[in-house]
Amino acid sequence: MKHPILKISVALIVIMGMIASVFAINSKKDETTIDHNSTTYNNVVWAQEELDNIVLNDDNFLQPDTTWKPYRVYRKVKGIFMTGHSIGLKSRFEEVLQLTQETEINSWVIDVKDDYGTMTYKSSIPLVQEVGADKIIKVRDFPGVMDILRENDVYPIARIVTFKDKQITSVRPDLAIKTNTGEVWRDRKGDAWLNPYNRETWDYVIDIAKEAAMMGFKDIQFDYVRFPTDGNRAIIDYGEAEEDETKAEAIAAFLAHAREELKDYGVYVSADIFGLVTTVSDDMGLGQHLESVALSADVLLPMVYPSHYALGTYGVPIPDKDPYTIIYTSMNTARERIEAIETDKPKAVLRPWLQDFTASYLGAGYYQVYDKEQIRAQIQATYDAGLEEWVLWNAGNKYTWEALVE
């Protein structure tokens, strides 16, 4: 059966050909008299009548909206974190890429919007330009970088620091969390935050995510997707929205909205969450409730760094010295809780952040040097908890590569 558009196209070609014949005849009217009984004349009249009677369905000529959804690529991630500066420094980039090829690492989590709210590459988003978030370019030929990663089969994940943002809030204080006196609120380090209740802040972050997707990222990972946890939170005034929506509802709603907005961009949506979220029953006052976010994102990344747990957590006297127990307890509990959710909706995959740094700041006796043994213990604990993915965190991107040789 022919397609309707094809049938119409054939008819139009025949008709236009016949009409052309009429023009040819008319052009010679000074030399030739038209025979109204001729076959050519009668066919042209028929063609004109057919043309008048053709009903064109406008829908047949509409182009569908572009969607990259069919090109979504999922990978069981074994990854590392890379800053924009590491990507932009050619020697550093090439060194890490070579080490990646020699180990089991198959993915990079790359800063797109960092902890300060600044971009790694030049953005085409008007508001990003307006607030100067891309004023200092860390990587000038970012498409070239993405080409190299693709050629080397490195799965690219975009890290976007979500609500912590001192850059845009300095220019657009109306988007910031405010104090009860109307001033921009700041945390213990003096950083300002976007108000997670404000939908306009959602648009800003999601526009950056869409641009990252168009750059070629396969996974959009939202970090600091929460309310602030330190500083004088008693003086915060979130506005009337807080009366209608809990923090947990706001964060889950943001992630669900982001996933909906990004569904046609061929990417997965992931979210970093606090390690303790895996085992506490509430949202810890920061808006991250495990069962809620598990239904709002495709992937959850609990930051289960042993050094971040209080002494005695899970019965472990010094958590930093027992990475296996911390990771296994956290991730096994999280897996069981998510599996127990009764729902028809898809549930998030768990992909923990693991510690590849030495927390000497804890003081003598409360930390240990993290080397090959400690890295492998965390990875094994992840596997023993029934999971298959993980990412290593080192702020300076200096990893224990000898622990990652397959």
Task: Give the topology, please.
Layout: H1 4-27, H2 39-53, E1 78-82, H3 84-88, H4 90-101, E2 107-113, H5 126-130, H6 142-151, E3 155-161, H7 166-171, E4 178-179, H8 199-215, E5 219-223, E6 236-237, H9 241-244, H10 247-261, E7 268-274, H11 290-293, E8 299-303, H12 323-339, E9 349-350, E10 353-355, H13 372-384, E11 390-393
Parallel strand pairs: 1-2, 1-11, 2-3, 3-5, 5-7, 7-8, 8-9, 10-11
Antiparallel strand pairs: 4-6
- Give the strand order of the largest sheet, numbering strands 1, 2, ... along the chain: 9-8-7-5-3-2-1-11-10
| Spans of at least 5 consecutive residues with low confidence | 1-15, 18-47, 54-63
| Average of pLDDT | 88
Oligomer: single chain
Shape: globular
From the N-terminal CA to the C-terminal CA, the straight-line distance is 55 Å
Tell me the β content: 5-15%
What's the main sheet like? Answer: 9 strands, parallel
**Structural class of the helices, strands and pairings?**
alpha/beta
| Tally of contiguous helical segments | 13
What is the helix content? Answer: 25-40%
